[in-house]
Amino acid sequence: MTWGTCRTLFAVSQGGGVRSMSQPRPCSPSHPQELVYRRQEHIQHVTLNRPHALNALSLEMVRELSPKLKVWARDRDTAVVTLRGSGEKAFCAGGDLKNITFSAQEGGSYGKEFFFEEFTLNYMIGVYPKPFISILNGLTFGGAAGLSVIGRFCIATEKTVFSMPECAIGLFPDVGSGYYLSRLSDNFGIFLALTGHRVKGRDLVRVGLASHYMDSAQIPELELALANLQWPVTMEDMDLLLESFQATSSSNFPESFSLEAHRKQISHCFSGKSVEEIVTRLHEDGSGWAISQLDTLGKMSPTALKVTLRLLQLGGDMDLAQALQTEYRLTQRCVADRDFHEGIRAAILDKDHNPHWCPSTLEDVTEQRLDQYFSPLENQEELILDDSVFD
Q1: TM segments (predicted)?
Q2: I want to staple 304 with a disulfide (CB 3.0 to 4.6 A). Which of 36, 57, 82, 167 is the partner?
Q3: What is the Cα–Cα distance from 322 to 2, expressed in whole angstroms?
Q4: Residue 253 DSSP label
Q5: Within a 10 A sphere around the Cβ of 290, how many other Cβ atoms?
């Protein structure tokens, strides 16, 4: 693959399988259990338990949770699965991206394995045969969407803060975003994907990313109601139950949609066929809001912006499996390229928040370069997703 004048910083292993990483580390006092399980009647509760890391998802957690979801999908005594984050700050702050860079520096395959297994888990949640409820009671960033928004039942609370900030680190909104963000009305999906705009509380329901809203104080009541549901539990039963909680929440009090004043601007400006056209429309708008969006876009990786827009333009014609397959290709190109590692350096390692993108301008990100990103992987390394994920 040719990347023009921008040189790849890290050599990434291209050979071998995708499951050669070491086994998950055992629990110990210094490494507490990262997933906590609690059974309540026919309900299986799961808690992401890395509060010190805002419950960021590690490969070990993916490898532990995936086989359990398979078992619960077949288990006649399991009616519902719930997922939440420990602590008061976060549901999940995304994936373990820092270790992908460390592995790439050593020529390792962590980036291949992490995304392969994470996206497989995302797909399982997206097509889960039983009610799967994610409770977003806190920060929900990046890869967290693949544990929540991707599923049938996703609950926002007054503490929810949702963002897909990947373009700021030289990546792109992944974990199925090509499927669900491309389907939001008024170009909200493109707006959220390119800018990383933060959506809070009940606005997540309004834009179409959460299925229901409830107050965080209602969560214990929800658990009790779930345990008392008459067996068996259908998707329709669950929808009615969650609707009843939403009806008695503070969502009934008047509160305007935070983006309502800019709905027409978002719809118009972010309908541009290219990132350059979006930028032009924002300049033509000229409002304070538009200037703020231009400032935000100017800080993002030009390559990531163009990859993201093309992904969402294609995503409307994809099913979930196809979107995740495409996104897996893109992650492997990002890990093999410069901007992702530069973004991690600037945001997470050195924390100088001054990334030097290459190419540095939108005009220098050619269609040929984008075609290379989206081209099929070689050596039968594609991600294939179907019903066999539950075998």
Answers
A1: none
A2: 167
A3: 25
A4: S
A5: 17
Q: How confident is the model at residue 251 (pLDDT cuts 50, 70, 90)?
A: confident
pTM of the model: 0.92
Distance of CA 163 to the CA centre of its chain: 9
What gap in Å lies between CA 32 and CA 47, rounded to an integer? 13
Catalytic residue among 96, 113, 118, 166: 166
pLDDT bracket for residue 345 (50, 70, 90):
very high
Q: Quick check: is 17 catalytic?
A: no
- Which candidate in 138, 143, 146, 176 is catalytic? 143
Q: Kindly list the domain boundaries of the chain, sorted by start residue.
A: 35-390
Q: Is 166 a catalytic residue?
A: yes
Maximum Cα–Cα distance across the chain: 63
Q: Is the pLDDT of residue 308 over 50?
A: yes
Among this protein's residues, is 174 annotated catalytic? yes
Q: At what angle do helices 320-335 and 367-374 cross, to 10 degrees?
A: 110
Architecture of domain 35-390: Alpha-Beta Complex (3.90)
Q: Count CB-CB contacts under 10 A for residue 277.
A: 14
Task: State residue 25's pLDDT score.
Answer: 44
